[in-house]
Design brief:
Elements (H helix, E strand, L loop, with lengths): L1 H15 L11 E6 L8 E6 L4 E8 L7 E4 L2 H11 L9 E4 L14 E7 L6 E6 L8 H13 L3 H4 L7
Helix pairs in contact: 2-3
Length: 164
């Protein structure tokens, strides 16, 4: 009986850690902001074309654990349009990193990963080391920085937003 209860609880916990597969057409977008040398927020967000979102904080955020939020159709469309110019070919990974395709590089900056996925299809990934200061990636830096604003989640990412 105890094992059965633990198995059911584990199943519930597993479901809470991610979003359900979308019913609406479109990609599930996963956006990860990695750690930096400092107090940069580190987190992963998932956004569904159905309008559901999930923020999973790692450190330096104002939310203590996984937090669900909603996304309007307009926000979802704006996110897709903002990231579209940087999306690699379907099912592939593109890396922008020091030594590979980046000449001017600042150390200790966060890495970002954007992943587009649909059930039954291979994921498409963009991996960007934000320390890459090459001018050709200027618009990508702006796009990455705009994601929290587009989704209206900045208060969840700002550790100073937590009331004492």
């Amino acid at each position: 009986m105890m094992l059965m209860a633990c198995a059911m609880l584990t199943g519930c916990l597993a479901k809470q850690e991610g979003l359900e597969p979308p019913k609406a057409p479109g990609d599930m977008i996963r956006f990860t902001a990695g750690r930096c040398f400092g107090a940069c927020p580190a987190y992963t967000m998932q956004v569904s074309p159905d309008g559901s979102g999930l923020l999973q904080p790692e450190r330096f955020t104002s939310v203590p654990g996984p937090t669900r939020f909603t996304v309007t159709r307009a926000q979802y469309r704006k996110l897709v349009a903002t990231l579209a110019p940087y999306r690699p070919a379907a099912g592939t990974t593109r890396k922008i990193a020091q030594g590979a395709n980046c000449e001017r590089f600042a150390t200790d900056m966060p890495n970002y990963v954007v992943e587009w996925s649909r059930p039954g299809q291979p994921a498409t990934r963009l991996e960007y080391q934000s320390g890459c200061m090459d001018a050709r990636y200027g618009r990508l830096r702006v796009a990455i920085a705009s994601v929290p604003k587009i989704l209206d989640v900045q208060p969840m990412l700002n550790p100073k937003a937590v009331a004492p």
